[in-house]
Amino acid sequence: MHTEPATSGLAEPQFGGPGSQAVPGPGALDELVDTMARVRAAVESVVTGRPGLADITLAVLLAEGHLLVEDVPGVGKTTLAKAVARSIDCHVGRIQFTPDLLPSDLTGVNIFRTGSHEFEFRPGPVFSNIVIGDEINRASPKTQSALLECMEEGQTTVDGTTHQLPRPFLVVATQNPVEMEGTYPLPEAQRDRFMARVTVGYPDTSAEILMLDRQEATTPLAHLQAVTDGPSMVRFAQQVRALYASPSVKRYVVGLVAATREHPSLRLGASPRASLQLLRAAKAMAAMAGRDHVLPDDVQRLARPVLAHRLILTTEARLSGVTPESLVDELVQRTPVPALEPADRRPF
């Protein structure tokens, strides 16, 4: 088991909360758009040749969700998470999941101090702004489940005492789809906690040559400079939550998610949590585009990464070569797109 140092104390100061949302007026998103463009550029300077990957990752961060990255070894899954963390100047906790990892290795442990005759809580790596969980499917279900409370409620309970986690808080878990012997696939209830799933993929030839040029002698991560900080990200997340989504867009989200529950090729469709997370992610994508309202285009762009990993195909569909991604694409094509009126923009 290997972990990188977590934060030096318990939870960092809380910068606002879910209930403290400042409604963004005209022009209020300018700072967010400019900052996130610079964060995107910083991330893409390290993870080259993957168009759109940084946008989805940053949308999940702004929407206060969590990200599951599935791909083969060596394509930059961990590098992606580290690049985001360095760009926003936040604490990073890295956990290498192994079969012998214990829940306390993640959350922390109470240690008895003989001098004071008191227990002292030593926080684990989850007390970080960005938690990188490498190969999460190699740990036992008991250890995997230690992340559930952290991801859903932003807190963890150790020996009956609840500790708040710092904000922003993002879990980036990686899975290796090969070498599955001795692994514990994430149960559906835990996969549903991840707002989105992405694959990094192989870079094209020109991007891979560029990577060789940049990393021949050093790693770009060593020279990556922060362009914003944690309190700013929390403030941006509050603005994202307050973005306007019209009733037409909400009906479109619900209709798209509900269609997964009725499709004959699916044994399990997306949950109501998926509807909520799809809307929140779409708000984040709209904010990064400089809009104070959500469009159906934002929903369509995020349908694959937000919905596909939540779906369970029937045996017949799987044997026929159907994939969750292709099925989501089919539903996006089939679900009627609402025609937005001026009233569907934010009313001021």
UniProtKB/TrEMBL annotation:
Region (Disordered): 1-28
Sequence ranges assigned to domain ATPase AAA-3 in this UniProt record: 66-195
Domain ChlI/MoxR AAA lid: 259-330
One annotated GO molecular function: ATP binding
Official protein name in the record: MoxR-like ATPase
